[in-house]
Amino acid sequence: MSQEWNIVVCVKQVPDADDVSIDPDTGTLNRSDAEAVLNQPDYNAVESALQLREAVGGTVTAVTMGPPFATAVLQEAVALGADDGVLLTDRAFGGSDTWPTSLALAAIAEELDADVVICGEESTDSSTGQVPPGIAAHNDWSQLTYVEELEPNPEEDELIAVRDIEGGHEKVAASLPVVVAVGFGLNEPRIAGLHRKIYAENEFEPQEYSASDLGIEESVGLAASPTSVGGMATADPVERKREMVEDVETLFEELESTGAI
Amino acid sequence: MPGEVDTEDYADVWVFIEQHDGEAAKVSWELLAKGRELADEKGERLVALVMGDSVTHLAEEAIERGADEVLVAEDPIFEPYLPGPYGEQFRYLVEERHPDVVLIGGSHTGRDFAGRVAVPTYAGLTADCTELDIEPDTGLLLAKRPTFGGDAMATIKCVEHRPQMATVRPGVFDAAQPDPDREGTITEVEVVVDESHQRSRMIERVVGDITDITDANVVVAGGYGTEGDFGPVEDLAAALGGEVAATREAVEEGWIEAARQVGQTGKTVKPDLYIACGISGAIQHLEGMNDSKTIVAINDDPNAPIFDDADYGIVGDLFEICPALTELIEQKRGETA
Ligand SMILES: Cc1cc2nc3c(=O)[nH]c(=O)nc-3n(C[C@H](O)[C@H](O)[C@H](O)COP(=O)(O)OP(=O)(O)OC[C@H]3O[C@@H](n4cnc5c(N)ncnc54)[C@H](O)[C@@H]3O)c2cc1C
């Protein structure tokens, strides 16, 4: 029975969703000036990791895969209270879809001897939600997704979660090591303290790993990705009438005459 | 590199029939209807997959709804759903039988285990597709999904790996009606999983306590503009015989339960009539309601973006407009009754 848990929290740097816009004239995506931020659902993941550490003891290590400037999201996690941060950075990772991405995260989780890996529900830029189950599948670990409540049961080396499902919920106990995807908004993420912030920005240095450090250089990147983007188009906006009506009577009549009510 | 395959060895379109306690999830029948189209286009067979305990009735229904063959893995280990056994059994079937395309519902169950199939089989998996087509020259699956919060549509292909897998949310496609005269074969497959694949256990499963808004013909949704008073929204929904829904903002404030959230991280609804009350029209919200037939926006800010995505817009206070509209609808009902 492990006394303290090695908790790994996966975080991602994404373009600020509010800054990604569509140019109404050209219909093209405009994200050049979007600020890079910590994926919003990952704040819930970091908070869950910190709460878990408070409950059972152990360490929280934030992990991200990305270019060197992705260190910023590790700093953010460390400012919030993570003990350490790991940056998976290597040109070899470039173009990875969810299969190699989850492989790389699975490999570092193994390397760090993780008991629990916590992720956000999905990323705001690609929103597949596939990476957490992918990590679990690569390592053949248990998994808990769409988690609304999380409770450790260290006596049994397991985590107990309430999962959101269609039309209800389920309560599941999963043995360690386990990969958790927490529901967006499941907790109130804390605010970083000033001292921690100063430490994160000035003293903290992430541990860096390349693909070959993890022995996976042949299995990551564009070439190892089963899927590829075959095209990108602006979403066809649904044609709407955009009729402004002056009063409720007119609205009612319009809806009635078109058969909507 | 692992997983290199001869794509020629792979054929047929598979649809996973998600079931709980012997009841199929509606999205499975929706996917079966879409799968039928894709299989016909490719000139291949449509195969349904059912896992569970005592599920023969679902296998029969799958044939009535379009499957040529149904593979049934029957064992108590498949009740209730757990990702370990489901993923392992599905992996085995994929490796044995080489399907070309695999469709899984984008429910929390489907998305939970799709990766447990795609990873060990080295398959390409596209999440939350809203359109599925076959590329005419190549026969490849073109899986289209909204990206950047719904502003763009990406087409995802899987050229060198098999199967080509996709998840699709409930409500995106229409289910076909069952035809009792359709014929097909039911094949019992070998169950290859045991307790060692479980790794987690279900303590309790509660369903039915929460309404399914994806099924409603009329949805009246409230946002932050309700300031926590959903009364006028509820009354309007009741007058129209519809369901109440909400934005993420309203859910986060604790004004309404999460199951009623519409949008990217909520549900996709497709009613005949969607009335948005005090909702600004963020792209994450629009993504869940854009397939509604008629959209009405009620907002006191004439510049609210929601008006661009509505058929009818009315500028004003929802606390005045909703009750007035409710009254007119009730009057009409009184007249016709
Ligand atoms: C990763 C991610 C996922 C998300 N997923 C979702 C999702 O699934 N669903 C979702 O809805 N959002 C989602 N969001 C949040 C989304 O970006 C918006 O913040 C949210 O939709 C706004 O909710 P709202 O329209 O209720 O509130 P607001 O944007 O605050 O709008 C309130 C509107 O009410 C109007 N109003 C105020 N008072 C009145 C009145 N008395 N009468 C009439 N009108 C009034 C105001 O003019 C305003 O337009 C997500 C965000 C992120 C980052």
UniProtKB/TrEMBL annotation, chain A:
List each copy of the Electron transfer flavoprotein alpha/beta-subunit N-terminal domain by range. 26-218
InterPro entries membership: ET-Flavoprotein_bsu_CS, ETF_a/b_N, ETF_b, ETF_beta_N, Rossmann-like_a/b/a_fold
One Pfam family this chain carries? ETF
**GO MF term (any one):** electron transfer activity
**Coiled-coil intervals, chain numbering:** none
The UniProt entry's sequence similarity note says: Belongs to the ETF beta-subunit/FixA family.
Name it: Electron transfer flavoprotein subunit beta
Per the UniProt record, the source organism is Halodesulfurarchaeum formicicum
Automatic annotation (TrEMBL), chain B:
Q: Which SMART domains match?
A: ETF
Q: Which UniProt key words apply to this protein?
A: Electron transport, FAD, Flavoprotein, Transport
Q: Which family does it belong to?
A: Belongs to the ETF alpha-subunit/FixB family.
Q: Which residues form a coiled coil?
A: none
What is the name of this protein? Electron transfer flavoprotein subunit alpha
Species lineage, top-down?
Archaea, Methanobacteriati, Methanobacteriota, Stenosarchaea group, Halobacteria
Tell me the first and last residues of the signal peptide.
none
The protein's matches in InterPro entries, at most eight in alphabetical order, are given as:
DHS-like_NAD/FAD-binding_dom, ETF_a/b_N, ETF_a/FixB, ETF_alpha_N, ETF_asu_C, ETF_asu_C_CS, Rossmann-like_a/b/a_fold
Q: Where is the Electron transfer flavoprotein alpha/beta-subunit N-terminal domain?
A: 13-206
Concerning SUPFAM superfamilies, the annotation shows: Adenine nucleotide alpha hydrolases-like (SSF52402), DHS-like NAD/FAD-binding domain (SSF52467)
Q: Which GO terms describe its biological process?
A: fatty acid beta-oxidation using acyl-CoA dehydrogenase
What molecular functions are annotated in GO for this chain? electron transfer activity; flavin adenine dinucleotide binding
**What is the originating organism of this protein?**
Halodesulfurarchaeum formicicum
